[in-house]
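Thread: Newbie trying to understand structure tokens

Hi all, I'm a second-year student working on a class project, and my supervisor (Dr. K.) asked me to get a predicted structure for one chain before our next meeting. I've only ever worked with sequences, so writing a 3D structure as a token string is new to me. If someone could post the tokens and maybe explain what I'm looking at, I'd be very grateful. Here's the chain:
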Amino acid sequence: MPDTFSHTAPVKVARDRVWAALQEAATWSNIGPIDEVWDAEHADDGTLTSYRWSARAAGRIWKGTATTAETAPGERMRLDLVSPEIVGSIEVALHDHRVTVSMEATPRGMLATMFWGTVKGALERGLPDQVEAFARSLE
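---
Reply by user tm_fold:
Sure, no problem. This is what the structure looks like when written as tokens:
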């Protein structure tokens, strides 16, 4: 069963501006634990479909891929995250004047399982500040 984390932050911009930002891979480096993104791919309509990512947690750098799993334009976007050590998802739900970011994560493999308490704690503690920073970056 995955661990879940969520945080809601106010935004001062319209939903369409938030939605447009979510289609830029660099935006996702400000959401959740992801530090860096690269190799972004988009559908013909401009919708972000995937990217590669890295994140620092528990003294390690974790690398993986993100693939868009669900979209409801102007309402929400969910990406599935996969790495050799961790699987999960990040979803951004858009509301009038606020965004909610929800994460699910599960360790995968012996090493991740051994350090999962530390990784889980880092994800849980870091998400509120990361979501607040993401919301401020939209202004």
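A couple of things are worth pointing out once you decode it. The beta strands are 3-10, 34-42, 48-57, 60-72, 76-82, 86-95, 98-107. Helices lie at 15-22, 110-114, 116-137. Feel free to ask follow-ups in this thread.
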